[in-house]
Fold this sequence. Notes:
CATH superfamily: NAD(P)-binding Rossmann-like Domain
Helix content: 40-55%
Number of domains: 1
Strand order of the largest sheet: 3-2-1-4-5-6-7
Number of strands: 7
Shape: globular
Strand content: 5-15%
Distance between the termini: 42 Å
Bound molecules: nicotinamide-adenine-dinucleotide
Low-confidence stretches: none
CATH architecture: 3-Layer(aba) Sandwich
Amino acid sequence: MNLSLEGRTYVVMGVANKRSIAWGIARSLHEAGARLIFTYASERFEKSVRDLADTLEGENNSLFYECDVTNDEAIIQTFENIQNDVGVIHGLAHCIAFANRDELKDEFLNTSRDGFLTAHNISSYSLTAVARASKPLMSEGGSIITMTYLGGEQVVQNYNVMGVAKASLDASMKYLANDLGKHNIRVNAISAGPIRTLSAKGVGDFNQILQEIEERAPLRRPVTQEEVGDTAYYLMSDLSRGVTGEVIHVDSGFNIIGY
Ligand code: NAD
C-alpha cells in the first residue's frame, strides 16, 4: 500500500502558533508528502502561520487563507477561493475551539446564554459549516478530522461549557460521517490528551490535569503534538479507509481509567 500523501492536498484549520495541535498535524502531513493549505481566524495570525510554514523542510507550496468560522459567507468564500486555486482537496483538519475564559472555571451551572452559544458556534457548529463548504472540493473522496476531548464524554473539572460543546461536536461528527460516507468522505475525531497550547491555558487548573495524566494514565506521560499529528496522518491516509464516525483517543490511555 502506498502510504505517501504525495499528490494530495489537505486543509489545516487552526494553527495559531508552534504549540497548536494543528501545527503538529501540519508537520506530520507535510512529512508524508502532502501539500498544505492553512486557514487562520484573522489577520492577526497570518504572519505567524506563514513564518511557521516557511520552516517546513523540502518542497513547500503551501497556501494561506483567512477564515473566521463564525461567518458563513467567509467560510463559503474561503472554500470557493481554494477550489479556484487548487481544484481538488483530499481532506481537512478542523482544529478550532473557543469559550470565554471566565466560563472555564468554577461551576458549569453559571454558564451564560451568550457563553454557551459562543462555545457551540465556534467549537461545534463550525465543523458542519466547513464540511458542507468543503464537500464539493473532495470530488475524489476525502477525510475530515476534528479535535475533541474527554470532557465531552465525562465531567472534567473546569472544562464546563467546552465539554458540552465537545459532546455536540462528537455527535455532529457522527451525523456528518453518515451523510458524507456515500460520497466517499470519511469523518472522524481525535480525542487528544491535554497538551499545553494557547487554548488549553484558558482552562482552570490545567497544570493539575497534566499532573494527573503523569500519575494515572497507563503510559504515565502526556501525549505530544507529534503523536496527535501522526494519528491525523493515519486518518488522512488509505490505512484508515474503512474507518469513519470514530473517536480515536490519543491520550496515553487515560480514558480507560475509572477511579
Ligand atoms: P490553539 O489555541 O493553538 O488552537 C485553537 C485555534 O482555534 C486557534 O488557531 C484559533 O485561532 C482558532 N479559532 C478560534 N476561534 C476561531 C474562529 N472564530 N475562526 C477560526 N478559527 C478560530 O489550541 P489547541 O489546543 O491546538 O486547539 C485545537 C483543537 O484541539 C481545539 O478543538 C481544542 O479544543 C482541541 N483539543 C485540545 C486539547 C489540548 O489539551 N490542547 C486537548 C483535546 C482537544
